[in-house]
Amino acid sequence: MIWRxxxxxxxxxxxxxxxxxxxxxxxxxxxxxxxxPTPVGQSVLRSLAVDRAVEERILALDPERITAADVRTLxxxxxxxxxxxxxxxxxVHLAMESFxxxxxxxxxxxxxxxxxxxxxxxxxxxxxxxxxxxxxxxxYEGEGLRPMLIGHSQGGIQAVKVLRExxxxxxxxIVVRGPYDNSDEDRTTFVDPLTGKExxxxxxxxxxVSVVAAGGAALLLPNQWSMVGHLRTIPDTVEHFTGxxxxxxxxxxxxxxxxxxxxxxxxxxxxxxxxTLPGWYNHVLLPVTRDLAADPTARAWIxxxxxxxxxxxxxxEETGQSVLxxxxxxxxxxxxxxxxxxxxxRARRALLGER
Length: 355
Hints:
The structure is a single chain. By secondary structure, the protein is an alpha/beta fold. It has one domain. It contains ten helices and ten strands. It has a six-stranded parallel beta sheet, with helices on both faces.
């Protein structure tokens, strides 16, 4: 069954929120669970418990060719946190919730997507980008793997804004922030779990970020004014960045053939990739993808998909589902999941003098 929201009702709700100037209420934190003690040295690596045989299988994987069977292998080991950022209109957060369900149904650990405090699937673009940057440092410090970010619509703008925060665009200090309480921790540094050395949050680099349908009207909102003129320039605080645009997107103000309205570029070392999605994609409903994991034909196509290869026509897209986008993002998620898991396993073995 395809999940749909009546278009007229959704349009009215969207316009109401946009004209209200971004009056949505930020997600509130769940019940306080206390502040997790700062890890000492490389204690996170030492405490990483993965079966030796599983480690060997993970290290033998090719990150560029992760099969469905390989996903089951990866799920037996460590996984990086995925931070989803939904758009700014109500009830578009349900669309990103659907995408979170798609990822878990495809095999990604649900606990590594949901907020550990309140169980929510995604973050609001009305949250502080500085606090989100501090949250990324907290996850990396405590879990040993660098988080990934995926943003939709205004959430895509927020994802790039977080990268600019980490690059020092808005100040020279970011406070570490945990997910369990509603206050920052009293420190601007964290312990790098792989080296055991203390380092500032400023300069933290994440492995993968993707944004879809970002830009346009959302840049008129006060909380995103600082991104005007900066959205499409990606700093070095991400290694691999993919920007998705819809052929003609009246929400994101994307115009076919006008690169300035769709393309992203790096200003240093980030690897930036631009993907144009079919013009019939619906800006608001684009992340609604959970049903794809349950459809045998769609799932087989998504599992076999490789960017740039002769993948053939995506199934079910005539029904309005975002199969190509889901497949492309899932490919990158699997790739960087594998790379991060291999990275932390190798670091642990080096620390313990193992081969």
